[in-house]
Amino acid sequence: MSWAAILLSTLLGLRANARVASVSRTLFINDTPYYLPAEPLFTFGSDTPNITADALPFTVLTDFTKESSIKSTIAEWEAVDDIFNQDFMKTIVLRGPFVNVSEDVASFFNQSGVQTVLTALPAGPYVLARDASGLPAIYPPLRLHFDPSQSFYKSTFLKSDGSYDVVSASLDTDSSPYIAVPSRVHALAKNKTHFPLAGFRVSVKDLYFMKGLVTSAGNRAFYSTYPARNTTGPAVTRLTDLGAHMVGMTKMVQFANGDRATADWVDYHAPFSPRGDGNLEPSGSSTGAGTSIATLDWLDVSLGSDTGGSVRLPASLNGVYGIRPSVGAISLDEVLPLSPVLDTAGYLTRDPKLFSRFGKAWYAEAFQSYPAFPKNLLVSEDFVSVSDAAKDIYNPWIEKLRTFLGANAVGNYSIEDQWNASSGVGSELAVYVNETYSTLVAYYQWTNVGKPLFQDYAAKNGGRSPHINPQVRFRWKYGESKGPDAYAAELMKRETFENWTLNNFLTESADSCSQNIYLYPINSGTYSSRETYYSSP
Ligand SMILES: *[C@@H]1O[C@H](CO)[C@@H](O)[C@H](O)[C@H]1NC(C)=O
Ligand SMILES: *[C@@H]1O[C@H](CO)[C@@H](O)[C@H](O)[C@H]1NC(C)=O
Ligand SMILES: *[C@@H]1O[C@H](CO)[C@@H](O)[C@H](O)[C@H]1NC(C)=O
Ligand SMILES: *[C@@H]1O[C@H](CO)[C@@H](O)[C@H](O)[C@H]1NC(C)=O
Ligand SMILES: *[C@@H]1O[C@H](CO)[C@@H](O)[C@H](O)[C@H]1NC(C)=O
Ligand SMILES: *[C@@H]1O[C@H](CO)[C@@H](O)[C@H](O)[C@H]1NC(C)=O
Ligand SMILES: *[C@@H]1O[C@H](CO)[C@@H](O)[C@H](O)[C@H]1NC(C)=O
Ligand SMILES: *[C@@H]1O[C@H](CO)[C@@H](O)[C@H](O)[C@H]1NC(C)=O
Ligand SMILES: *[C@@H]1O[C@H](CO)[C@@H](O)[C@H](O)[C@H]1NC(C)=O
């Protein structure tokens, strides 16, 4: 036997024994890139005639009573979807009202060797392709999008067992992975009462643990120290239960702290904001959340987290809507903590109506309605010192809000004055809470995340220390210098401030939630370049 013949027989032997566990594919239909996940929606039996094409795009139509209804369906799909197009119209499957095959018909088919396929595929685009064992199967096509903002670590896809897979496709790119998104057409058939977020594409800050995925929390050592997560937290599973799709994990400031792009982003490169000259400081810590939602029109919502501004700041710098909800608005189980008394799960959108729909569905039982609007607008004295350009935007907006609410505006409102007048604490607020935030976050995170990471990393790496970006290193050192007594004292100060707020500042009201709305400029409207070098923390 020749050498080549031996090799061939070896290969054939291997082929007979090898079991390919799964196959995922990148394919082009005309010039558009798509991704087929490993799991088909449906696999045909082994006696089905083989398909000769590698992949056959097709469309299921359920309403084909009139030419006009087909035309309007196609027009609607083309308007809402970036996947369905004429390439999927070359093969059409017409699916009538779903009826069960009666037993005698089933047995007639069976005796005639006919395989009946009782699968109620919803209307929309699909791809017929061979599965891992060569059988014909039906797949949902995912569209692959380039991400010029470099917001993502990876693109994700939910498997039927509830764990996440990484989308394995890549195409020519300058660094960011391509992001796969499912068709919006399949969501149109879902009942909006049960699936209010059907078709929503959501990016996830890489501190929400996702079953099957390794979490980075923005740190390379953390990523390489811990295994893939075995649980997805309730904040994310609620979204998938409501019909939303998690498209990928976004970049973040390490462990949800604060960093500047050029000074501090050592482990990973900071994403790009599309605003201004394209070189604005993108802020954080929900950095990729802000840049992805501002840049990518195929994305609907970004999940972030806000402890001390981590959603509000990227929202303001990227020109989108963002929220820090009340602490406890939604469970933060299986989310990397910074401070449990201050951490919140927030999100960002470009569209205010979609912003409202998403919040009502996500915060669900924590979401409350009141019969009246707050009667007073407390307009912070800090508006005096914003840039003139920002004043031109802020001032007319504040006036519109006041008119809409029918509220009184209290200008130049000072929290310090009100604190002095009503707290009874006898110490300036800025002095009283000077180290409250820093102690609460740094002591807690050093104790519960930092210290265990140093130990676990050392155990795996011959006693060496993990690399931590300068800002976080500085904060953790500070946290390490605080003891449990200092932490307890600052917890009391936070609670004192909260009590004062409820009674004297954002006074509670059964009618309108709070009597007052406090407006403050989180951004002074000045240019801040990502090229700036800063001195050490
Ligand atoms: C389909 O192709 C596979 C592999 O080539 C072969 O084993 C199988 O018999 C074919 N099935 C039919 C129904 O022709
Ligand atoms: C089809 O059969 C299933 C299972 O027997 C039953 O639940 C369903 O209601 C039937 N559907 C119709 C349209 O008769
Ligand atoms: C016919 O029924 C038998 C017994 O239920 C089953 O094993 C077989 O797969 C069926 N054949 C087809 C073609 O559906
Ligand atoms: C959606 O579900 C609700 C509640 O179960 C039901 O009342 C309604 O008829 C459903 N709508 C459609 C279009 O099926
Ligand atoms: C999930 O992971 C955690 C942390 O690594 C571990 O303590 C727990 O036993 C795991 N649970 C299961 C079901 O594997
Ligand atoms: C706020 O204070 C500034 C200067 O401190 C003053 O010019 C401005 O008129 C005040 N605005 C209101 C609404 O009182
Ligand atoms: C508040 O009171 C402190 C003394 O407790 C005083 O030093 C400070 O100037 C006052 N601040 C304001 C804004 O009135
Ligand atoms: C806050 O604490 C820092 C560090 O101890 C100190 O340098 C600063 O002066 C303090 N600021 C106030 C307003 O008390
Ligand atoms: C805050 O108010 C609650 C409820 O009235 C009270 O139980 C608690 O002791 C107060 N905390 C502080 C630090 O004053």
List keywords for this structure.
AS_sf; binds 2-acetamido-2-deoxy-beta-D-glucopyranose; 537 residues; 21 strands; Amidase_dom; alpha+beta; seven-stranded mixed beta sheet; disordered N terminus; signal
Summarize the model shown.
This protein is α+β, with helices and mostly antiparallel strands and 537 residues long.
Q: Would you spell out the secondary-structure blueprint of this structure?
A:
Blueprint: H1 3-17, E1 25-29, E2 32-36, E3 42-43, E4 55-61, H2 67-80, E5 92-94, H3 103-111, E6 124-130, E7 136-139, E8 142-145, E9 152-158, E10 164-166, E11 179-181, H4 185-188, E12 201-205, H5 220-225, H6 234-241, E13 245-250, H7 261-264, H8 287-295, E14 301-306, H9 312-318, E15 321-322, E16 344-349, H10 352-363, E17 376-380, H11 388-405, E18 408-413, H12 415-422, H13 429-432, H14 436-460, H15 470-481, H16 484-505, E19 508-509, E20 513-514, E21 516-519
Domain Amidase: 189-351
Keywords: Signal
Signal peptide: 1-18
Compute the number of helices.
16
The main sheet comes to:
7 strands, mixed
User: Would you identify the regions where 5 or more consecutive residues have pLDDT less than 50?
Assistant: 1-17
State the shape: globular
The total of beta strands comes to 21
Adjacency order of strands in the biggest sheet = 10-9-13-12-14-16-15
Helix content: 25-40%
- Which hetero ligands occur in this complex? 2-acetamido-2-deoxy-beta-D-glucopyranose
Domain Amidase: 189-351
Signal peptide: 1-18
Keywords: Signal
Pfam family, one: Amidase
